TrEMBL record, chain B:
Annotated Pfam families: FAD_binding_5
Organism: Ancylobacter defluvii
PROSITE patterns: FAD_PCMH (PS51387)
Protein name per Swiss-Prot or TrEMBL: Carbon monoxide dehydrogenase
A molecular-function term among this protein's GO annotations: oxidoreductase activity
Length: 789, 276
């Protein structure tokens, strides 16, 4: 850890709000995405997808003239199912075939792959194929799927449960029975779709000159896709290269190996033609990009002053039909258990979570992973306790948050909170939102008949989870030491090569800033190369708010190592002892002069006769690794406060004000951090008020276009006001913490609490997200009827 | 998804368009394509031929008369919004157009297309009915004109005969003192409404009209609306009869939106202005 010093780097190093380098191409519409790419001789794929959620495939009728252009599971003999196992005791393994085999387990599952010169023609051909199904009862509701007698999604399982996760920490029923306050609530969060601007897509090409299959794919984790694909195809890893070109947002949807990718790769090898598949929005919505469906029954035990004495929960997570590679079907469920206590000091805790298998698309970790759900659940409970105790929810929160003098703090679920002042973030949020003025305003009726409400939510976000967290999961990847390649080119400019992938995180800028911080080189002279297994060192990729910490640390390590080698050559050229030279502004500075990186590079590459005799033979191209001193992860945190106006008759909710006080440690680029928070908050507002992928009792998805699946747009975004605290993490290279997901975690909780606060006087309390106008109206109407009867 | 194969014609005149439609029972007219386009891509609509009427000169013409303005059917929402076409009302049309979907939709979507699509939750059918608009049709048996409330028969259902197209819409001139209230409740900006009401009070002309949209079927049209404006509760029976009272919360939603539209007759400033 060190102090930030961007002033000394000409305002371009760590801590500088440098404008994004990648914007030069992206804002001009000159990026290159999968959809922009076309190879000579390319075929396009359309998938015939299951129209039923659960059915046995009796027969597939493919007309003779489509042979060689339409393929089923039977044609793909030798291709292995996708297996995303975990090492957790009791975990049941689902085998996910790339094309449905024997049964279809969710509506939208790919059954037949059809290839033609264009997608439209492939879709025409699909209409000529008929599949006979025997429909089976569909598990559309996770609470019913776990009941005895429910149809089995996987015939060889005893029930529809991937995994039961549980913990019991100091939970003494007898003692808690006497708690002055006992509040029980049921909370449900909707199933969602991640909806990045760019959907998935891939092109598989067998490159004969390399004897290598290249999969161009819209992914967050090229190296992991490579490993998974090699396993499915039975190829050695060296025979596969995975490249992610420009990627238009991921949010978790691009953090997995998809059956469609396996199909395209297989077909490219089989037909020796480039094969392309581009997910359309309908496929995105119905065929797999699902996430986040939770259900909770919780009881909080508290003292009369709101101090939490204990907390218990039974949760269900609808994990869908298959376990996704590499994160598995239980990441979400198991993290519910460990993350539900959030930033609070809980003395007693008991939780059991079912990762339920259903006839819906597999759920994939989505920005916030489990924490959005647990934060909603816990924060609604804090407000419920406050209502029961007759206290302001702000005070109950403040009373229970982990205090700064307790840091570093080990939570009841053994999370190691690194550093920070959680109550201060809440106090600042209270000031910014104008708590006292709002409470005063609430005593007066609004002129337009609307109700005003104030809601808070506080969370902490574990990011950059390392080996010690992940090795116990036993899933197909474990993050270890993060690597970075650094190479000074013959003209003295720098290439930084990373196995992570930047798809909106601005890493082409922030990683160059870190190189600038270490070497003083102009970020404009640094190329950040990422997303290509052939050009970058292995990495698990971009997920879990890890890149600023892990890749950022690796860039610093690699630049430092490179700096040592540069200094050696520079000292020789300056005829100064090595100890007497240092690096400043891309120069080696000695007691009697300086020499530029350009000169040093020129010497290494073009005038090696001038090198010292004992020069490091590995040259100016190296790979170095990094791992934080404590690898259990950083804990950024934030308090959100929302002010809303609710129209009780129409159910409309307007966000009048929204403030965020967050602590991301040392910010590499504050503007980029703000961007992450704004974007995450927009998604959180979607979770809170709009987004919902519903299914009918046959397991049919009821939203197949964006007219049905509502995403927040510019018109729905309030002017979010952000305040930063910057408590450095003691464990990371610059004191930075992972913040990528945080914005998406708290809005459903803050807005839910604000809506309930607004409607408190009417006896209304909502507990299902999204809190749509229909749900608000219905709750108001139900409260009215209750009041009448 | 991609559209199924279709042929595409771009006739130069109404006569040619009508002839093309008469020739091919599977043909369908298209203008802005903002509703038909997605249906084509989802393969829910599979016309054999698209007859693109958006470039026909007569459908792009605007004819200003003393008693109102006749707009070609292919005038876009954006042209109303931007005031590039004359407005016979004190700014009501620009205000309505500004709230239609999103700008990208408004750039292409047309007033005629919106009326023909006849979505009860869309903006033009409800508001133009309130303004007393009439549609002009052309077909194999010639031209005719209908009051908008007689043209729209129900949800996505119109009096358009086989082979007929809408060529224009006539909007009567309001007096300068006319007041207009328009309120819609949408799940988000630009979405189709869950409840909507448009109301026109133009005492100088003796006109009071109120229309409730976002109905299950036909709009609720009150042509002599002075009494309802004075006492919105008089409308409750019609809301119930229209099936909008299945749940108490739904009825209250529609009641509230009607009241808010009526309130605008006195609260919205006389000179309509769009947000900057």
């Amino acid at each position: 850890m060190q102090e930030t010093s961007h002033e000394a780097k000409g305002g371009r190093g760590v801590g500088a709000s440098l404008r994004r380098k990648e914007d030069a191409r992206l804002l001009a519409g000159r990026g290159r995405f999968i959809g922009d790419m076309r190879f000579a001789g390319q075929l396009e794929v359309a998938f015939l997808r299951a129209p039923l959620a659960h059915a046995r495939i009796k027969a597939i009728h493919i007309p003779e003239h489509l042979k060689g252009r339409a393929f089923t599971h039977a044609d793909m003999a030798g291709v292995k199912d996708i297996l995303a196992k975990t090492g957790l005791p009791g975990f049941r393994v689902s085998a996910q075939p790339s094309l449905a085999s024997g049964k279809v387990r969710f509506a939208g599952e790919p059954v037949v792959m059809v290839l033609a010169d264009t997608r439209a023609e492939a879709e025409d051909l699909i209409e000529e194929i008929r599949v006979d199904y025997e429909e089976l009862p569909a598990n559309h509701d996770m609470l019913r799927a776990v009941e005895p007698g429910a149809a089995l999604v996987h015939d060889d399982w005893p029930d529809n449960v991937f995994l039961i996760s549980q913990t019991d920490r100091f939970f003494d029923e007898a003692r808690l029975a006497g708690a002055p306050i006992k509040v029980t609530r049921e909370v449900r969060t909707s199933r969602q779709c991640m909806s990045p601007l760019e959907g998935k897509g891939c092109i598989a090409v067998f490159e004969r000159y390399l004897e290598q299959l290249t999969l161009w794919t819209s992914t967050q984790m090229p190296h992991i896709v490579r490993s998974g694909l090699a396993e499915c195809l039975g190829l050695e890893t060296r025979k596969i290269r995975v490249v992610a070109p420009d990627v238009g947002g991921g949010f978790g949807w691009k953090g997995l190996l998809q059956p469609e990718e396996v199909c395209c790769a297989w077909a490219a090898l089989k037909l020796d033609r480039p094969v392309k598949w581009l997910e359309d929005r309908r496929e995105h919505l119905i065929a797999a990009a699902n996430c986040r469906e939770h259900h909770y029954v919780m009881t909080a035990y508290a003292d009369a002053d709101g101090t939490l004495l204990g907390f218990e929960a039974v949760a269900h997570v609808d994990a869908g039909a298959y376990s996704v590679y590499p994160f598995s079907a239980c990441l979400e469920g198991a993290q519910v258990v460990s993350n539900l206590p959030g930033p609070y000091n809980l003395p007693a805790y008991r939780c059991r979570t079912y990762s339920v298998c259903s006839n819906k698309p597999p759920i994939v970790p989505y920005r916030g992973v489990a924490r959005t759900g647990v934060c909603t659940a816990m924060e609604l409970m804090i407000d419920a306790v406050a209502r029961e105790a007759g206290l302001d929810p702000y005070d109950v929160r403040l009373r229970n948050l982990v205090r700064p003098e307790q840091m570093p703090f080990t939570s009841i679920t053994a999370k190691e909170f690194d550093m920070g002042d959680y109550p201060e973030s809440l106090r600042r949020a209270r000031e910014m939102i104008g708590h006292e003025a709002v409470r005063a305003r609430q005593t007066q009726a609004e002129a337009d008949g609307r109700k005003i409400g104030l809601g808070y939510a506080t969370y902490c976000e574990q990011g950059a989870h390392g080996t010690s967290v992940y090795h116990g999961w036993g899933i197909p990847m474990v993050p270890g030491i993060e690597s970075c390649g650094a190479r000074l080119t013959p003209d003295g400019t720098l290439e930084v090569r990373l196995g992570v992938q930047s798809h909106g995180q601005s890493m082409e800028t922030t990683m160059a800033q870190i190189a600038c911080e270490v070497l003083g080189i102009d970020p404009g002279l640094v190329n950040v190369v990422h997303g290509d297994t052939a050009m970058t060192p292995y990495s698990t990729g971009t997920w879990g708010s890890r890149s600023a910490v892990m890749a950022g640390g690796a860039v610093a390590s690699a630049c430092e190592r490179l700096g040592e080698r540069l200094k050696k050559i520079g000292a020789h050229l300056l005829q100064a002892p090595e100890e007497a030279v240092s690096i400043r502004d891309a120069e080696i500075v000695g007691p009697n002069g300086s020499v530029s990186f350009k000169e040093v590079a020129k010497t290494w590459y073009l005038a090696p006769q001038n090198l010292p005799a004992d020069i490091h033979s590995d040259g100016l191209d190296l790979v170095a690794g990094y791992k934080p001193t404590v690898d259990t992860g950083t804990f950024s945190y934030a308090s959100h406060a929302a002010l809303v106006a609710v129209e009780p008759e129409t159910g409309e909710v307007e966000i009048l004000d929204y403030v965020i006080v967050e602590d991301g440690g040392v910010l590499i680029n504050p503007m980029v951090v703000d961007g992450q928070i704004y974007g995450g908050t927009a998604q959180g507002i979607g979770t809170a008020l709009y987004e919902e992928m519903t299914y009918d009792e046959h397991g049919q998805p009821l939203a197949s276009t964006l007219a049905d699946y509502l995403l927040p747009g510019a018109g729905e975004m309030p002017n979010v006001r952000i305040d930063h605290m910057q408590t450095p993490s003691p464990n990371t290279r610059f004191g930075q913490k992972g913040i990528g997901e945080g914005g998406a975690i708290a809005p459903p909780a803050a807005l839910g609490n604000a809506i309930n606060d607004a409607l408190k006087g009417m006896g209304v309390e909502l507990s299902m997200s999204p809190m749509t106008p229909r749900r608000v109206r219905a709750a108001v109407a139900a409260a009215r009827e209750g009041a009448v009867s | 998804m991609k559209a199924a194969r279709f042929d595409y014609l771009r006739p130069a005149s109404v006569v040619e368009a009508v002839a093309a439609l008469a020739q091919d029972a599977g043909a369908k007219p298209v203008a802005g394509g903002q509703s038909l386009g997605p249906m084509l891509n989802l393969r829910l609509a599979r016309p054999s031929t698209l007859v693109d009427v958006s470039k026909i000169a007569d459908l792009r013409r605007v004819d200003e008369r003393p008693d109102g303005v006749l707009y070609g059917a292919a005038i876009t929402h954006a042209e109303f919004e931007d005031g590039t076409v004359p407005d016979p009302t004190p700014g009501f049309l620009a205000r309505v157009a500004h709230g239609i979907a999103y700008r990208a939709v408004r750039n292409r979507g047309t007033v005629g297309g919106s009326l023909v699509h006849a979505d009860p939750a869309a903006d033009w059918p409800t508001t133009l009915t309130a303004l007393g608009a009439r549609v002009v049709l052309a077909g194999p048996s010639g031209a005719r004109e209908l009051a908008l409330e007689d043209f729209i028969l129900g949800a996505f259902s119109t009096a358009l005969a086989d082979g007929e197209i809408v060529t224009g819409v006539f909007i009567p001139r309001c007096s300068p003192q006319a007041r207009f209230g328009y309120r819609k409740s949408c799940r988000k900006v630009g979405e189709f409404a869950e409840a909507m009401c448009a109301v026109l009070a133009d005492p100088a002309r003796g006109v009071h009209r109120l229309v409730v949209g976002a109905t299950e079927g036909r709009h609720i049209v009150v042509t002599e609306a002075a009494a309802v404006i004075a006492d919105p509760a008089l409308l409750d029976a019609r809301l119930t009869a229209a099936g909008l009272a299945a749940e108490p919360a739904t009825l209250r939603l529609h009641q509230k939106v009607v009241r808010q539209a009526i309130e605008q007759l006195t609260t919205v400033p006389e000179t309509e202005s769009l947000p900057a």
